[in-house]
């Protein structure tokens, strides 16, 4: 025996189909207005999970880029400071060569040269206390205390490079990429552990201020300090290049990850509009057919 289709069944099915059509239209409308394929996890759990993974990766990349930018800023500042140290040392060497030429300089001239070298030594101390964002760049991890200073127990004492911190400052700029961003001040200003470059300059000043015209090894010691400075700058330059390459790699990784996230979440607007128009046409057809299905009642004829 066949199943009897009543008018109530027709009406109910028509309303159910219209409701499904309305839900489809709402879906495409939300996609167009939000620009996203899904607006809630239940729309597509797999897409939501993959999108969260890509967003987490982008957050990590953003932090690595921030670390790399901060590190590169300090490395650039450090290189500028070392370049200034190099200029000071070159000037000191020129003055030392001139001052040790006793045949053309009397004692007053040597006094004047000694005074200029002494001023350059003070300037070297200012460079040793260079800062970035309130942090001393040649103090190892002891970034809050000036490395070139008086004896804390005797404020009237002569300033010296007193920092002994040899801990590197390192930043993570990738999951397995850690780069040292500082140059140890002890390696630059006190590499021999006996006063370093400041002791060499003090000895030159003392020699020029004395009447002693004997042979000295001041130029050899200056050259040793300048060679050491060149070595430290070379190592810093290599690490700076590595940091710049890391930044370039992070930029590329950010672009590719953003593209994957967009492909996963962003809706094709033109396709969504086509789908919406299609559903609108279906709705109009359904309403037109529904108007024919719904039977007229006796009241319609009594109007």
TrEMBL record:
Organism domain of life: Bacteria
Keyword Isomerase recorded: no
Keyword terms, alphabetized: Bacterial flagellum, Cell projection, Cilium, Flagellum
Limits of the Flagellin N-terminal domain: 9-141
Compartments reported by the entry: Bacterial flagellum
Main location: other
The keyword Repeat appears for this protein: no
Matches recorded under Pfam families: Flagellin_C, Flagellin_N
Domain Flagellin C-terminal intervals: 220-302
InterPro entries: Flagell_FlgL, Flagellin, Flagellin_C, Flagellin_N
Family membership: Belongs to the bacterial flagellin family.
Protein name stated in the entry: Flagellin
């Amino acid at each position: 025996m066949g199943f009897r289709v009543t008018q109530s069944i027709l009406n109910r099915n028509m309303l159910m189909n219209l409701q499904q059509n309305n839900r489809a239209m709402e879906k495409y409308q939300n996609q167009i207005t939000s620009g996203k394929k899904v607006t809630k996890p239940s729309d597509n759990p797999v897409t939501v999970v993959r999108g969260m993974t890509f967003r987490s990766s982008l957050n990590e990349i953003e932090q690595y880029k921030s670390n790399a930018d901060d590190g590169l800023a300090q490395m650039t500042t450090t290189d500028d400071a070392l370049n200034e140290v190099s200029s000071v040392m070159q000037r000191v060497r020129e003055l030392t060569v001139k001052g040790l030429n006793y045949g053309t300089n009397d004692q007053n001239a040597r006094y004047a040269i000694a005074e200029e070298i002494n001023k350059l030594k003070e300037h070297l101390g200012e460079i040793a206390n260079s800062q970035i964002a309130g942090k001393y760049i040649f103090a190892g991890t002891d970034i809050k205390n000036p490395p070139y200073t008086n004896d804390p127990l005797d404020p009237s004492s002569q300033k010296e490079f007193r920092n002994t911190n040899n801990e590197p400052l390192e930043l993570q700029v990738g999951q397995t990429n850690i780069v040292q961003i500082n140059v140890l001040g002890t390696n630059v200003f006190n590499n021999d552990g006996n006063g370093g470059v400041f002791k060499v300059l003090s000895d030159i000043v003392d020699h020029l201020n004395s009447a002693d015209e004997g042979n000295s090894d001041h130029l050899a010691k200056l050259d040793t300090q300048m060679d050491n400075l060149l070595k430290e700058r070379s190592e810093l330059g290599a690490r700076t290049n590595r940091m710049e390459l890391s930044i370039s790699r992070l930029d590329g990784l950010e672009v590719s990850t953003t593209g994957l996230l967009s492909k996963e979440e962003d809706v094709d607007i033109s396709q969504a509009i086509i789908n919406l128009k299609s559903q609108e046409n279906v709705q109009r057809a359904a309403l037109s057919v529904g108007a024919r299905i719904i039977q007229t009642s006796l009241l319609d004829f009594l109007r």
